[in-house]
Write a structure and sequence with these properties.
mainly alpha, two-stranded parallel ribbon, 10 helices, 2 strands, 66% helix
Length: 291
């Protein structure tokens, strides 16, 4: 366990570095690699090659480190692998939930005021608001130290369902756009968020996918930060930042529990309250039954 601690620390540091590098390379690409009139990609742009190379190196690095950290292990239990190591990490989870909830309210407001009449955007706003509540609940439950199977099965899958709606809404806005490079990083980031949320939920059902969780969470953060360089606004910006914070916090929890396993107590459900005992059926004499 101690021998793999440096790998976990390196991974925690590399993810924000790759994300920051991708953000600035994306800004460079947006400023120099697209035709100003048509918006089409300029072939042979160095910014595009640099951005694609960074994404490829990040994916290989994250996959390699995740494989080294969790190869051959079958960790079980959500809190044993994703418990918040300190109060600060739990607060960041609450912040991610608040950002998602605020983004959902903005989407609902835009639809109500007629600023965006697409129904899929209204559905996305509702899903973001619900996901914000569930992410906040995950942050509160992550502070506990009592482990049991299935205790997180309710709030954990909800962000994954929200991300499924998000990828449909995002692609719908680009169906007529021939420039795939303009939106491909956003779609890939949302897909990573879907798989990351699925992998997080797998711990609650004691069918863990730690390598998938590490890879999809880290790449989700990197790709979403690349998409943030496009300067989205409103609900879209809130969704990007909310999911990016949530994925990075969960990745930090996973690697922190890998370096220093938390001390947990076995959770037992509260005893059910017993109702009043019903009186036993008394057998009456035959003569009284006839009367």
């Amino acid at each position: 366990m101690k021998g793999k601690t440096p790998l976990a620390l390196v991974l925690i540091l590399l993810v924000p570095m790759f994300a920051a590098g991708g953000f600035f390379l994306r800004r460079w690409q947006v400023d120099t690699a697209f035709e100003p009139v048509s918006g089409l990609l300029i072939p042979g742009s160095p910014a595009t090659y640099a951005l694609v190379a960074l994404a490829a190196v990040a994916a290989l690095t994250v996959l390699g480190l995740g494989w080294q950290l969790f190869r051959g292990e079958t960790p079980k239990g959500y809190l044993a692998n994703l418990a918040a190591p300190n109060m600060g990490v739990g607060i960041l989870t609450l912040v991610a939930g608040a950002v998602l909830f605020a983004g959902g309210l903005l989407g609902i407001r835009d639809f109500a005021l007629g600023m965006d009449e697409r129904v899929i955007r209204l559905i996305l706003g509702i899903c973001l608001a619900v996901s914000g509540v569930c992410v906040g609940l995950v942050g509160l439950l992550g502070q506990q130290r009592q482990e049991a199977k299935g205790r997180f099965f309710g709030p954990l899958p909800v962000p994954a369902f929200c991300a499924c709606v998000w990828v449909l809404a995002a692609y719908q806005g680009h169906t007529a756009n021939p420039n795939v490079m303009e939106y491909v990083f956003l779609l890939l980031g949302i897909l990573c968020a879907i798989f990351a949320c699925y992998a997080m939920a797998s711990f609650s059902f004691e069918k863990p996918r730690p390598i998938l969780c590490v890879f999809s969470s880290a790449m989700g953060v990197i790709l979403l930060m690349i998409s943030a360089a496009d300067r989205p606004w409103g609900m879209d910006a809130m969704a990007i930042w909310g999911f990016a914070i949530y994925l990075f916090v969960q990745l930090t929890c996973l690697l922190s529990c890998r370096m220093r396993p938390p001390e947990l107590e076995e959770w037992t459900p509260p005893p059910e309250e017993e109702g009043p005992e019903e009186p036993e059926n008394q057998v009456q004499p035959r003569g009284e039954e006839d009367e």
